[in-house]
Amino acid sequence: MAEKEKLIEIKDLQITFGSGKKKFVAVDHVNFDIYKGETFSLVGESGSGKTTIGRAITRINPVSAGEILYRGKRISGKISKDLDREVVKTCQMIFQDPMASLNERAKVDYIISEGLINFHMYKDEEDRKRKVAEALREVGLLPEFASRFPHEFSGGQRQRIGIARALIMEPEFVVADEPISALDVSIRAQVLNLLNNLKKSRGLTYLFIAHDLSVVRFISDRIAVIHKGRIVELAEAEELFLHPLHPYTKALLSAVPIPDPELEKNKKLLVYDPSIHDYSVDGPVWEEILPGHFVYGNQKELDGYRKEIEESR
Amino acid sequence: MANANMEKAPILSARDVEIQFSLRGKKLKAIRKCSLDLYQGETLAIVGESGSGKSVFTKSFLGMLDANGSIVGGSIQYDGKDLATYKTEKDWMTIRGKKISMVMQDPMTSLNPLKKIGRQIEESIELNQGIKGPEAKAKALDMLRKVGIPDAERRYNQYPHEFSGGMRQRVVIAIAVACHPEILICDEPTTALDVTIQAQILDLIRSLQKELNMTVVYITHDLGVVANVADRVAVMYAGQIVEYGMVEEIFYDAWHPYTWALLSALPQLGVKGEALPTIDGTPPNLFNEVKGDAFAPRNKRALAIDFVEEPPFFEVSPTHKAKTWYLDPRAPKIEQPDSIRRLREKMKLKERG
């Protein structure tokens, strides 16, 4: 694999909430890079910290240890005002619930151009209107919709408005936090296609956060599996599906519903039991077990995984 | 097993049900002549996009329609009575919870946040079985254990906010089955939950179904869930059932164009780098009279007659019927789309890797 340009680098990231006795470590020792132009997915159950990582990159959640680099520059912790503005502008976010993420009292016109107004990214009123119309058209809505309120739209249309709002800032990097979980099956396909087309036409890089592995396989280049704030496995999408190593990844894969009655009724459900890991003596490490395939485990487990790889070859 | 069911008389039989809502002085026909039979012990899944009326249709079986909605036509035969004629809450109380029960989609909103979990289960037992005091409590505790909640005595005295989403859904299920209903309707029971928890909840419902000998109706838009649980599937579109059959028949030999569209839009079948097939357009506005096949305007291969006359049900097999002119002997020969024919091989390939 040719050396690709790293857009985001995350090093030993730790995020905690609260302090003192109530301190809670939501994300710990997280390391990964996101290359330019790829779709990188974070998969895990609710409460695993996947959204927290996404929010840390867009500077919504503060980082307590480690750092996040964006194009080689540190963007976590205290940074200059100029850099902060740049990050806020070029790293956009698409939220999970289109019913809750749009201001009910504002017209679509304002919702979409709010970012433009904050950053003075337009020449005059006419230019702003043109940009809004363009953004609406790009996500498959009509420019006339600008004068309406969010409640007049269906879930799929609202999610498109959310996407238009992110796109108008001309971002380079988009964090999509479960953008399709709240949508209907038929609309899901439309929104996924839209995201894929925009990636091609705009050269976007995505961090895709999801709990549904079946969708993730279709859309992502690389997948990281996160459990209780730790990334347990990271690999290219197909590699992860064909040769999962970590028991949690296996459990997660076994739970994915397959739309085929015969396969689905005969499938075996694996349950992940974290107590199988004995890390008291032999401490776990984050190891690149195959080129591009990382897994978290201690030496004994890693040896087991290596044997598994040999056998499957 | 399912075939044996077919010979038995249905335990619930809805015929030509029509449901209307009055909204801002206008009439919305949410359900347009919908018929459905339920057989003892089976699992039926109703699929369709939001707004297709799948929730409204099943809610009418236990009198849970919103105040502005009513059944205006057809009949729902159950236990020798016609539920469509039930009007008062008193009538419905003989059915709801005792005979037919419902599990709602969102466990975050379907429990009372101010009441202890145990009390909420007890309430259902007291109301429907007339047991009170320690006896009801013992039953509630028993129910908690049955739905797999560990440490039931301690959990009994906790409030909903102390439970996780999956655990809350277990409590909701406990309340629904506390009085051993004959029919359990699960309205998107796992949509708000994680995949791993989803699998556990589906397992729980399945084991309860076996233990209590219930008939279960799933309402869902997740075809993966359908493949997992269902014996039979009914596909709903714009207030009507457009196709129904055994689960294998729907997945491998579907005939209605809407079923085709639903199946081929699955991300699991997508090829990376290619666009997923989508369903263009929107469902018809049910304020207006629908003419012909309701899906025709969104169907690229619609026939001329689809726009004029509503198709009747055509039989594909004794258990499988579809409401489309494609199956009329006079229709031009239409092949199932490649994506449907290849569905099976594709899924098998994916599984093997």
Automatic annotation (TrEMBL), chain A:
Residues 8-253 form the ABC transporter domain. InterPro entries: AAA+_ATPase, ABC_transp_ATP-bind, ABC_transporter-like_ATP-bd, ABC_transporter-like_CS, Oligopep_ABC_C, P-loop_NTPase. It holds the Pfam family ABC_tran. It comes from Brotaphodocola catenula. It comes from the Bacteria. This is ATP-binding cassette domain-containing protein. SUPFAM superfamilies: P-loop containing nucleoside triphosphate hydrolases. The keyword Ribosomal protein does not apply.
